[in-house]
Amino acid sequence: MLYPIMYKIKGKRVVVIGAGQVALRKVKDLTQAGAHVVVIAPDIHHELEEFASSHPTITIIRREYQKGDCAGAALVFSATNNTQVNRTVFDEASALNIPINAVDDPDNSSFYVPSFFTRGSLLVAVSTGGASPAMAAKVRRLIEQSIPQNIEILLDAMNELRALIKENYAHIPTSQRSDILKAIVTDEKLLEQAVEAYNNKTLQEFLKLILHK
Fold it and tell me: Are residues 109 and 19 in the same domain?
């Protein structure tokens, strides 16, 4: 069994070996997450080169992978079609206790990247542990279709409510505060009222009404 985590990589060095279409997708996702990405490959896909030119947190090194390239990285991705290169990268990263993912090569990976999507602060990830990325993508699409269109504003409203409760009702036990938020989320009418209050900047008043019912 694998253990799922959400890893904060903002400001961290992440090495990507390879510079094709697959590497481009990885680099875009990593850059969006705030990583400082180092791309190592002798030939760089023109789209990746163009993307890197407008993102100063991306460094491109035009050469083959060399021993020592993994040093100092928080994560390493090997996006090549060369199993031998993947194995070499895996061995070095493993020796340095650095998590390594080789695309479509589970034997040379210490972690897998799930199929995922984001909606504002919502991030939903689906993994089959490397058994079937295609099936993971299918399940992800099914989940994505079931997400409410207004999920971003729902999350913004609940985030602000959570902060208000924590700031103004610290005397209430944590478990009770959690129950209040769960009650709002599970009651469609209350949730709709919370969004309306958020839009009207009256969440404080809404919260008082809820707590004094």
Answer: yes
